[in-house]
Amino acid sequence: MVRIPEISPPTLEWIGDETGSLQLIDQTLLPRTLKVLDIQDCATLIDAIQRLAIRGAPALGVAAAYGAALAAREAATPQEWDQALQALRASRPTAVNLFFALARAEDIARREREKGWDPQRLLRLLLDEARNMHRQDQELCLAMGRHGAELLRDGMRILTHCNTGRFATAGIGTAFGVLVTAHAQGKDLFVYADETRPLLQGARLTAFELEERGIPGALLCDGAGPGLILSGEVDAILVGADRIAANGDTANKVGTLPLALAARHAGLPFYIVAPTTTLDPETREGREIVIEERDPREVTLGPEEGRCPPGFPARNPAFDVTPAELITALVTEKGVASPPFSSRIQDWAAE
Ligand code: MRU
Questions:
Q1: Helices 42-50 and 57-74, packing angle to 10 deg
Q2: How do the domains of the chain map onto residue ranges?
Q3: pTM value?
Q4: pLDDT of residue 320
Q5: Catalytic residues
Q6: Atom of ligand 1 lying closest to residue 169 CA
């Protein structure tokens, strides 16, 4: 097995015992500034989630698990804890990992409440659970990396979208973790990173991670990807997911769907890499997935003034849905599934 070095400081980390705090890298400031936030309460964590200081589906799940513990530290009554969980649940709507983590915290709280309200004990249990999820996510990333790397050959040119690496998970990443693993195995890869409008997770975070890991690559405007795919300059497309419906339809960062359409047209493989915590068997198909609509000013303002006429309207859907029929394979920690995906998704989610 190859050794993949851990990079410090980690994306998120609980420091200390039950009186401690959640430390996380403020990703809005990267790549210019590496600042670690010290989060002591649930409201500050919700703010960090909403402004994308912490982001990426698996990282959101782990952060939410710590959030449930912070809520137990603050709540004077069970009702206050419920309200805090409701606020965490409302922080971002698309990444199902966040809901998965909160559902696990609620199961623990339900069992505990049958014995009476003991916030100190609940805090201890929820913190243990969050630490478990944290460790588990690191292991899931390594397993996805191993399965996915088998799909990559020496010399491949890969196109990826958004950021799916260490900044999006508690480990080496999902799609990016596959690239890191294949690179560590000695495979020679070249990675095209879409810049990922409007918040530039590809330019700010994926390019940063490519440099950190010493993987050669180049940045692309989002609109350039499909053209490069059709002109024969790309061999495979690897992306992550925020939610995978029961039939395999997959929500991911807006701009993923044009890559899948272009890949199908060019006859290239289009892979989704995600842990089983991103599966949502309760949602039958992509049409039912709630797509986050963010502040239009993220589109119109951006880093510089004068990008468009002042006050001009904009829409800002943060995700799109790729139909299952455009996906060549789903890579999870449990293995690689080819279409049709429904029965594998049911089995994986039930295990
Ligand atoms: O809005 P973001 O930055 O949270 O969106 C992240 C993505 O869309 C990622 O591709 C997805 O969460 C998979 S990450 C491992």
A1: 160
A2: 12-141, 146-350
A3: 0.97
A4: 98
A5: 242
A6: 15
CA of 318 to the centre of ligand 1 (A): 9
Among 253, 243, 248, 189, CA closest to 222: 253
Q: Which protein residue has the closest C-alpha to ligand 1 atom 15?
A: 164
Cα-to-centroid distance, 116 and ligand 1 (Å): 38
CB atoms within 10 A of CB 164: 34
Ramachandran angles phi, psi of 103, nearest 5°: -65, -40
If you compute the radius of gyration of the chain from its CA atoms, what whole number of angstroms results?
20
Are the C-beta atoms of residues 242 and 272 closer than 8 Å to each other?
no
* CATH classification number, 12-141, choose in 3.65.10.10, 3.40.50.300, 1.20.120.420, 3.40.50.720: 1.20.120.420
**Could you tell me the distance, in angstroms and rounded to a whole number, from the CA of residue 19 to the centre of ligand 1?**
30
Q: Which amino acid, 235? A: D
Ligand 1 atom nearest to 201, measured from its CA: 3
Mean of per-residue pLDDT scores for the chain: 96
- C-alpha closest to that of 127 among 22, 26, 275: 22
User: What are the tens digits of pLDDT across the range 246-279?
Assistant: 999 999 999 999 999 999 999 999 999 999 999 9
The class that CATH gives domain 146-350 is alpha beta
Tell which residue, 134, 135, 146, has the closest CA to residue 54.
Answer: 134
